[in-house]
């Protein structure tokens, strides 16, 4: 399948960037160069924002019902083009083709859900004395700057672009450096569906140049960012400086509590799937720190390691592949260093712990047990195929360990006890808790974190409200 020409989408026009730098995009499974792009210039950023501002005026004047119809056309085109988009996503991002297809199809469902929810952005009438009408109105916020991570670029575009458009906003999206071809192919669906020119723009280039200019642009009213906590803090500072509202979807280091009464077989199946078969562990919500009740510790470690040893690692298009490569050589080096550090502090290697092959950034699914609290991997987000296991004596201790990091995105628990489940739900410091499963949040659920994992939500009614502003209108009629 042909790799697309990597162009910017600026004020309704697909064209080459006007920046100085040219960058390459690499297939992480083969290290082959897939394509090149010329970066966006400062002027490109300004033109994209100006185009979005003009298109916003057109889009906000459309009825919510019409916007839903328009977005349904986009979703239909995404479904029609699933093979092409998924192929690009798999080549650039390294995930198996069947996972890429699922992400693309799911993204169409997200857009449809948001499009319907856009018709329910109700305001409020506040009781007042006769002759006075008091109203809290919800309005589209304006131009949204969207910055996404590379690991689920299609899902994130659906949540940010689809959500913002459903709420009546216009969007300037900064592409990931790793998966720009996927971003181009995806946004072509919005353009080809006949949305107003300029309503969605795409900038590809140097994030340290594009992001500050985009955030500072006066027409930009909301900044929606998905990425690491370190970059999220920098974006948060820029937003504070320019008084921009922000949604920050940041890093995680999800704890798992495997209680004494857990069904170990079911827990292992769910956890191995969520940890390794989902983008090789390069997932913000990947279950990583597994705290297991002491009486079930050995049984869990053995069952988990055995399941992991049987996983099939390979390139996206290979038959039956379950786990792909890491996205960069530097990600692989980072995982290697975390594994070595943990082992040097006494952790036991139960599976993996090595590179695979000579081409591509493959690293074996890796399991460490008896991982001490001071190991770097227990504190830094691994963002890769590395699972850490440790034991706890009481549920109180397990909860303390689960909550001990700055992160607070996802958490998991496995228990057959309603009482333990309730206690964990009340005391866990996380934006999302899954009990006895690891399946992804549906479009109607509020996705997001607490503490260093960010603020604001994507998905559900809460996600759409992030793209709106409140206006209080009081009208004295006589
Ligand atoms: N909470 C969530 O929903 C969620 C989802 C996916 C990934 N993540 C997190 O994202 C991280 C991995 O993704 P990544 O490697 O793409 O993250 P990243 O923070 O390196 O990059 C994210 C985005 O920020 C941009 N960026 C990078 N450096 C920048 C800078 N100095 N100034 C401005 N923008 C900059 C990138 O171009 C990209 O668009 C992990 O920490 C993961 O947990 C969070
Ligand atoms: O946007 S989604 O595709 O639903 C999605 C996928 C993965 C993650 C975790 O990184 C969050 C959202």
UniProtKB/TrEMBL annotation:
One protein family per Pfam: Aldedh
Record-level Gene Ontology MF annotations: glutarate-semialdehyde dehydrogenase (NADP+) activity; succinate-semialdehyde dehydrogenase (NADP+) activity
Residue span, Aldehyde dehydrogenase domain: 14-473
SUPFAM superfamilies, per the entry: ALDH-like
Coiled-coil segments: none
UniProt xrefs under PROSITE patterns: ALDEHYDE_DEHYDR_CYS (PS00070)
EC class (word): oxidoreductase
Family classification: Belongs to the aldehyde dehydrogenase family.
Name of protein: Succinate-semialdehyde dehydrogenase/glutarate-semialdehyde dehydrogenase
């Amino acid at each position: 399948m042909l790799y697309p020409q990597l162009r910017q989408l600026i004020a309704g026009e697909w064209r080459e960037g006007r920046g100085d730098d040219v960058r390459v995009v690499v297939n992480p499974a083969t290290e082959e160069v897939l394509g090149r792009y010329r970066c966006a210039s400062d002027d490109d950023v300004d033109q994209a924002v100006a185009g979005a501002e003009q298109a916003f005026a057109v889009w906000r004047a459309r009825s919510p019902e019409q916007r839903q119809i328009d977005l349904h056309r986009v979703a239909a085109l995404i479904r029609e083009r699933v093979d092409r988009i998924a192929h690009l996503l798999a080549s650039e991002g390294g995930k198996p083709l069947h996972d890429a297809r699922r992400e693309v199809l799911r993204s169409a469902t997200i857009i449809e859900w948001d499009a319907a929810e856009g018709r329910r952005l109700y305001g409020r009438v506040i009781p007042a004395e006769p002759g006075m009408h008091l109203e809290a109105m919800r309005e589209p916020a304006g131009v949204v700057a969207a910055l996404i991570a590379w690991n689920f670029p299609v899902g994130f575009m659906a949540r940010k672009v689809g959500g913002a458009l459903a709420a009546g906003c216009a969007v300037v999206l900064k592409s990931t450096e790793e998966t720009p071809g996927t971003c181009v192919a995806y946004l072509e669906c919005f353009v080809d569906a006949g949305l107003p020119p300029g309503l969605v723009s795409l900038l590809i280039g140097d994030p340290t140049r594009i992001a500050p200019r985009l955030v500072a642009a006066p027409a930009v009213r909301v900044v929606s960012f998905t990425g690491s906590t370190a970059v999220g803090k920098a974006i948060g500072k820029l937003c504070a400086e320019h008084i921009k509202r922000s949604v920050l979807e940041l890093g995680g280091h999800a704890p798992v509590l495997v209680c004494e009464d857990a069904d170990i077989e079911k827990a292992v199946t769910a956890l191995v799937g969520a940890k390794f078969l989902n983008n090789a562990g390069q997932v913000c919500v990947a279950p990583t720190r597994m705290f297991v009740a002491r009486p079930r510790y050995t049984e869990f470690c053995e069952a988990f390691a055995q399941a992991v040893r049987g996983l099939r690692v390979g390139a996206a298009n290979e038959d039956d592949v379950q786990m792909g490569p890491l996205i960069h050589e530097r990600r692989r080096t980072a995982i290697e260093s975390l594994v070595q550090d943990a082992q040097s502090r006494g952790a036991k290697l139960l599976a993996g712990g090595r590179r695979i092959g000579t081409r591509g950034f493959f690293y074996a699914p890796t399991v460490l047990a008896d991982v001490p609290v001071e190991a770097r991997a227990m504190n830094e987000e691994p963002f890769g195929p590395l699972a850490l296991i440790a034991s706890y004596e009481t549920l109180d201790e397990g909860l303390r360990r689960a909550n001990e990091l700055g992160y607070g995105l996802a958490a998991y628990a496995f228990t057959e006890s309603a009482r333990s489940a309730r206690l964990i739900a009340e005391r866990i410091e996380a934006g999302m808790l899954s009990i006895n499963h690891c399946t992804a949040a549906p479009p109607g659920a509020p996705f997001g974190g607490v503490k260093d994992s960010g603020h604001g939500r994507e998905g559900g009614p809460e996600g759409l409200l992030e793209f709106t502003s409140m206006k209080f209108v009081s009208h004295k009629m006589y």
